[in-house]
Amino acid sequence: MAPDALALALDAVPLGDDPRRPADHNARLVAEAVLATPCREAPDGTGLLPYAARGLEPVDGGRRWLFSPDERLRWSDGVPLRAGDLVAGIRDGAARDRQAGRFLAEGDAAAAELPDGRVEVRTGGAAGFLPALLTLPRFAPLRPGSEAVLGPYAPDGTGPDGGPRFRRHPHAAGGGALPERLEFPVVPGPAEAVAAFRAGRVQATPRTGFDVADAERYAGDPALVTVPVSVFTGLEFGRRAPAVRRDPDLRAALAAALDPEALAAGTGGLLEAAPAPVAALLGGGPARPGGQGRRAGTGPGPAEVREVRAAYGGGPLEVVHADSVPDGTVVEGICARLREAFGLDVRPRALPRAACVRAAATGDHALLYAPASAGFPHPAALLGPWAPGGRSGRAAGFSDTTFTRLFDEACRTTGDAEAGAWLAAEERWLALLPRVPLFRVRAHYLADPRVRAAGMTASGIIPPLGFGAVAAHR
Fold it and tell me: What angle do the packed helices 302-312 and 248-256 form, to 10 degrees?
């Protein structure tokens, strides 16, 4: 590895060929090298920072937002960033991704260049979370017909393992303070990644590649970084047990059998209890009622045990999960607790990740242990998929007028009352949700001082702009 280069190991080749629409976490990490979104996440997880947009301000209670392009930014061909580039990027993102785009006005009304050179973004209603939404790669500035990039690094081929390589372009923000080369070698397996790190071939191991044994083995290592990220996991109720999927009391009984804190304690710190994801994202504690006024983990009553047993029938109950770490270890613990509480024959069933994604989309399972990622750093990213028009709500047949009202009120709320509004919406969501939220993922990886100095965002991204601190650690 050249002195003026950094290599961040990936556990697999990034999925997708469009950095504006990364298909997995590896692709999202790589996208940061070539894009400059209107806003970006702070590397310490504390908030947002301006990037391609400056002076962002709400108008009409958040129905419109105004900002200016940061014309100090230049594309890799030397052309300055213009307002039209931001307009094109936001329109493209809104049109091609209706899950995120539904929060914006339709068609070209989503964004426009004003006579004074500023950009106006119009939301579909009041959206106080627009700055967080604009951290998504799909809303990055766009120059149709140009292959120039606005982020600090331009593509420079791939390595023999298929991992992408980048080179700092001459007009990059951050200039010479950034390393000249940024590489993402693919190193499957934590043992191989740690060996590459010890040998200096990579400066960071994959962010979520450790199993429980690895987390315990490296717990005292001075190079270990562990950070909570906005990925939450839990149990989803599927179509193979329709009675439980439909009945909130049965779901609450099953949730009451599971103690997230006790289960998380067996993961070596890879997971932390988060039965209320929005509260966790806002910095609140993990505890919440488990239904019917009880706290999670208090256990179901005798009548509920009989009802749950009847709903799941006499055959084996499979808990489907991805064949990746640490899912298998966690699901073993969940199955053991459900066997103990209900006397059911509960078994884990590992599937390839792609099959798990299909099962989640179709509901073709009885119970599924699956992640739910907050794609942008705001409670709206967790609750929005369940609001009208959201993908999760459609897939599960979830609809509730009270939740919709509370969600809409939270979208309109800003200032000191905002957190309370989102917590009220979450409380209703948790009471009805065909899912048992359990944990928040903690990234665990080894990193050299240069990478540690860059920090990590709440979305689990190591921001390339943070590598400007490299010089201080040479």
Answer: 110
